[in-house]
Amino acid sequence: MRRIGFLVNPIAGMGGAVGLAGTDGQVGEALRRGAVPRSADRAVEALSALRGQDIEWYTCSAPMGEDVLAAAGIDRYTPLYRPAVPTGAADTKAACRAFLAAGVDLIVFCGGDGTARDVFDAVGRSVPILGIPAGVKMYSAVFAVNPPAAADLIRRVGEIPCRDSEVMDVDEEAYRSGRLAARLYGYACVPFIPERTQGGKQVFEQQDEERAKNDIAAFIAEIMLPDTLYVVGAGSTTARIMERLGLAPTLLGVDAVRNGEVLARDADERTLLALLDEYPRAKIIVSPIGAQGFVLGRGNQQISPAVIRRVGLSSLIVVATPGKLAATPVLYVDTGDPALDRELGDSLQVVSGYRMAQRKRVVHPD
């Protein structure tokens, strides 16, 4: 039997129909403009399709969950939390902590990006979450595409994979003034079926490049191995990796890092080779020069053929934002050792986001 925690944000989405572009901090104004709650109806639509399923539900009392389950014809549930009136973010977080203590397999919430952020604050990646979409805007990738899709995902939880999905933090004040100010808040574990689970909002402007750098940095920092020397090349993307580690980067130089400590800043080839004598287990992280596409041999000659051969081509990590890759049709290498260049092959995998990569063609002009 699956154990699922369920809550609804009763005010989610109220601002949309009355032109507020969001409800956070605007409930009074939404009501003044004639807004009516809509999240409960969206939740009932999803949960009605789950009557008779082998699910033990845990929820909140009254309008934050119990009323919806009853309206959906579900009678096997246990209220674990009694919210304040009116409800708020603290109630969402407290309810989720109660669900965690009960050992649920999934937390389902009905709301928007603000609710997603509150749920994530409480549970992080400790349990999968899924949103029934009811907000004004939903840029986070933790929602089903609609209530029926949510029902399908809930019905198949435990049988389908989960993926890391973006929780976005959107500045509603800026949004209401016509400016999108969104940042990545975190990655939640979300049940995934193509065309059932929505993707994150993409806005191709400078802030997305910065967000992509943060995503790349988060992923690389997560997979870095202990007792391994990392030779970190030049560029703003690799600099972001250093900053993620709490280290000051050399933007136009090459740094050497091991176990979260900088062993050499702005290192030359000799320094790198000496470090490799002491720490033979190593990896290289580089980023291509935008538009030009040079991965090696331009701006990072300190990472010489001798250094590359000592580390090994299989330990080369290439990183670049999607925007840079879009502007860079092909990649090049020019290490000064044509045989080594050819050994790199005709394509390279480039990390372009959190657990995302693109394969990019490498051109050998000779």
Description:
The chain is α/β, with parallel strands linked by helices and about 375 residues long. The chain folds into 2 domains: about 1-205, Rossmann fold, CATH 3.40.50; about 210-360. It has helices at about 25-30, 40-45, 65-70, 90-100, 115-125, 145-155, 170-175, 205-225, 235-245, 270-280, 305-310, 320-325, 340-345; strands at about 1-10, 55-60, 75-80, 105-110, 130-135, 160-170, 180-190, 230, 255-260, 260-265, 280-285, 295, 315-320, 330-335, 345-355, 355-360. Strand 15 (about 345-355) and strand 16 (about 355-360) form a beta hairpin. Helix 4 crosses helix 5 (about 115-125) and helix 10 (about 270-280) runs parallel beside helix 11. The longest helix is centred in the middle third of the chain and has 18 residues, at about 205-225. The relative contact order is 0.09. Residues about 15-20, about 175-180 and about 200-205 have low confidence and may be disordered.
